[in-house]
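Posted in: Structural Biology > Protein-Ligand Complexes

Title: Requesting predicted complex, flavin-adenine dinucleotide in pocket

I'd be grateful if someone could produce the 3D structure tokens for the following input. Sequence and ligand are given below.
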Amino acid sequence: MDFRLTAEQEQFRDAVRGFAEKHLAAGARERAHASGYPWDVAKLMAQQGLLGITIPEKDGGQGGTLLDAVLAIETVASVCPRSADVVQAGNFGPIRVLAEYGSAAQKQTHLRKLLTGEAVISVGMTEPDAGSAVTDLKTSARKDGDGWRISGSKIFTTHSAYADVFLVYVRFGPGVGGIGSVLVEKKDVKLGKASKFMSGEEWAQLYLEDVRVPQANVLLGEGGFKKQIAGFNVERIGNSARSLALGRYAYEAARAWAMERKQFGRLLCEFQGLQWKFADMKMKLDAAQLLLYRAAANADRGLPSPEETAIAKAYCNQAGFDVANESLQVMGGMGYSQESLVEYCLRRCRGWMIAGGSIEILKNRIAEHIFERSFSQRP
Ligand SMILES: Cc1cc2nc3c(=O)[nH]c(=O)nc-3n(C[C@H](O)[C@H](O)[C@H](O)COP(=O)(O)OP(=O)(O)OC[C@H]3O[C@@H](n4cnc5c(N)ncnc54)[C@H](O)[C@@H]3O)c2cc1C
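-- Reply #1 --
Done. Output follows.
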């Protein structure tokens, strides 16, 4: 077993670092606090080949590996945490489900714009009454001639304010087997009142009021749920990578601070109480990184295993948050202030403990693998 990156991976990481330092270092703080999507960053990343890293070249991607995409998130985030979201959107989220399962026509219509950084796609799964119990979703697809009528509502959809197209989970019929997904264009979605997460990211409730979509917009029909979740495991890897990367960003800021800030006539790094915090943080970051790399490196055709993904995500989410929190503490008032990006990293990491499968739900999945049986959560 070799824990080192290959020469190509090192080269790729160095190239991403060079790009990030040249284009993203200036303005990293402003970007973190700005609303809206950093379209300028998306276009630059498209030119650099950082969108569609894992998407086959025949579909306009780079034909790289999931680990390459993880390296891109980590490296970009180490310079500009907010820009890591653009790597996520262009590699890990619904774009990957579209690339994996979409028809040639769907890819032709949507993928090109997503890969050039001109558009972004959102995934609408969560509903007011179907959060962790996502298979309770009610948004329905009713047959209408040669197309479908979609009715329902979605909440907490990331990028909802500016997405071009939505991958909407719908119910074609009863039960888990009745769930599939359709592509709905922005013009057909009614947005509710604008809201914000604690992270500052915008979201708005989506209302689909008897929206007609042609058969060509069905991405995965009845029985597609399992495939969607396989695609969604990729999203979870990106989510894990950002948790780890933002935790690490905060840690590096705190480490630099501890080597320069003096109190009681000594550098902070000379106090044992703080040294032990750093030792704990370093162990968590290293452990999280190994779990994340295992899940990404073992991915089969770019799709990671559910068990390794669940372990990586639950651990990275917790580690990222814990490390950002301790880093903030080490930096005192400066960590709590917007003068540094540490408070931003903490707020972002908090959200990923809930988004994309909460830590509790992932632990339920891990337990099922341990005991090789499923445990119904229903009364
Ligand atoms: C930052 C952010 C971005 C998001 N982006 C999107 C998006 O782009 N698209 C989308 O569709 N959704 C998105 N979501 C929604 C997200 O997927 C849901 O918030 C998540 O699935 C949890 O659902 P809920 O909020 O309804 O909480 P609930 O399901 O009501 O859960 C509440 C609490 O109970 C716990 N819990 C629930 N059931 C169990 C159980 N069986 N065992 C143990 N604990 C349990 C949960 O872990 C949680 O702590 C986003 C959420 C956040 C925070």
